[in-house]
Amino acid sequence: MSGAVARGAGARSWDDADAVHVAAPAKLNLYLHVVGRRDDGYHLLDSLIAFAAVHDTVSVRSAPSLSLKLAGPFATSLQREPDNLVLRAARALAEAAGVRAGAQIRLIKRLPVASGIGGGSADAAATLKALKRLWRVDPAIDLAALALPLGADVPMCVNGRAALASGVGERLAPVPALPPAALVLANPMVRLQTNRVFQARSGAFSAPAAPPGPCADAAALAAALAHCRNDLTEPAIGLRPQIGAVLEALAATEGCLLARMSGSGATCFGLYADDEAAERARAALAAAHRGWWVCATRLIDDVEKLGPFDLASGARSGG
Fold first, then answer.
1. Which residues are catalytic?
2. Helix, strand, or coil here: 48?
3. For residue 250, what pLDDT is reported?
4. Per CATH, which fold does 4-306 belong to?
């Protein structure tokens, strides 16, 4: 089972009764401390991860063979990839579950590529979830274990809940529910490869942060996160100075409680008390920086809280 990649959604409607749709939300590192390094070169992390309501969408339906169709504003960025992570996830599940059937997969790519918000990992996790339903895979198949060889962030996205991540990111511990909060995500439209950012990091390793306790609101969450940081920010800015400008611009918006880079960059986020403040900040940033990708969205601690979503826009429905 190999799989092919094509552009466009195809003639057949994706509203067919046999199609399965799964959201692939952006993953955020609310903080990220690099606490050590293994003998094999992989860095050890301490990170609080959560998700944003903005997402890619993975849709699957029955087909004789395995194929992938790309759509959405960032589809072109993936067209050049010889073997998309979505197809690798599909083949891994088929092999583990002994599935001989194929599937047609459609990925609506709304999240920037190589941008520190786990877009590819989220897509792979959503593919595993969607195909598990489509193929009626044995519930005993552990998707998180299957996901780890695909990348350290993929099990986080399979888990789909806010967590403390340790090890190389594969060890996840639950955290108290996060409060309602709004976000603005901003990316200067530069790509960063994670390995280059880690290679550029220097200096001593950080200590793990104290686990956050319950937070009553967004302001309390921002205060709890203030003593933490993202240890990859400095090396990322060294490689892409535009990231520093994004952080400064976010921090200067009215109502911003915290501005921080996610993952290895280049996407940064601002935390706000409510949707109205986030939308005002988004509008101001979009007007001042027309080349940036800017999105107002919401912080979520469980992807199941997304509920029904609009397959065309990736927005939540029903508020």
1. 27, 153
2. strand
3. 98
4. Ribosomal Protein S5; domain 2 (3.30.230)
pLDDT tier at 316 (50, 70, 90 boundaries)? Answer: very low
Q: Note the pLDDT tens digit of each residue in 170-183.
A: 899 999 999 999 99
* Token pair 């706000």 in the structure block, residue: 272
Provide the 10 A C-beta neighbour count for residue 70: 23
Residues 6+ apart with CB under 8 A from 41: none
Rounded alpha-carbon distances, angstroms, from residue 191 to 47, 150, 267: 22, 20, 9
Residue written as tokens 């990091």? 201
Window from 74-88, 94-108, 116-130, 188-202 with minimum mean pLDDT: 74-88
The CA distances from residue 85 to 23, 90, 137, 154, 172, in Å, are 16, 9, 20, 10, 22
The pLDDT assigned to 83 comes to 76
Domain ranges of the chain: 4-306
The reported pTM is 0.92
Alpha carbon distance 283, 288 (integer Å): 9
Do 253 and 287 form a contact (C-beta atoms < 8 A)?
Answer: no
Q: CA separation (Å) from 72 to 89, 105, 297?
A: 20, 14, 18
Average pLDDT over residues 141-164: 95
CA distances from 299 to 181, 218, 230 (A): 6, 10, 18
